[in-house]
């Protein structure tokens, strides 16, 4: 059973900051794209930010300039620094690892259990 473990979620006021961290097994982390997704109540899960094994990043338009994803390839961790938080950032945040592609373009996605981020005054 592969386990991605998130930490750092919590309750924060609008305009505040949080830093999420995810620890992954080296066999999953090494050489693979890591990322963060989120799911708000009544909404589909959406991509927040991803980072390739080489450090190339991609962000959702809604978080550009406010969030920063980083990875530590020695510690097998990926972090999400969230600044200037808004109420609409409230969601369960999931750590993700993508491996592959395998035969016929098959990718395997690994997920953490999720950590709650609530932005409210």
Map the helices and strands.
Elements: E1 5-7, E2 10-12, E3 18-23, H1 26-29, E4 33-39, E5 46-51, E6 57-59, E7 67-72, E8 77-82, E9 91-102, E10 106-111, E11 115-119
Parallel strand pairs: 2-11
Antiparallel strand pairs: 1-3, 3-8, 4-5, 4-9, 5-6, 7-8, 9-10, 9-11
How does this model look, in words?
- The chain is mainly beta.
- It is built from one helix and eleven strands; from the N terminus they run βββαββββββββ.
- The termini are far apart.
- About 30% of the residues are buried.
- The mean pLDDT is about 95.
Count the strands?
Answer: 11
Q: Main beta sheet, described?
A: 7 strands, mixed
User: On the 0-100 scale, what is the average pLDDT?
Assistant: 95
Radius of gyration: 14 Å
Task: Give the helix tally.
Answer: 1
Q: What series of H and E elements makes up the topology?
A: EEEHEEEEEEEE
Terminal Cα span: 39 Å
pLDDT < 50 stretches: none
User: What would the principal axes of the Cα set say about the shape?
Assistant: globular
Alpha-beta classification: mainly beta
Question: Helix fraction?
Answer: under 10%
Beta-strand fraction estimate = over 45%
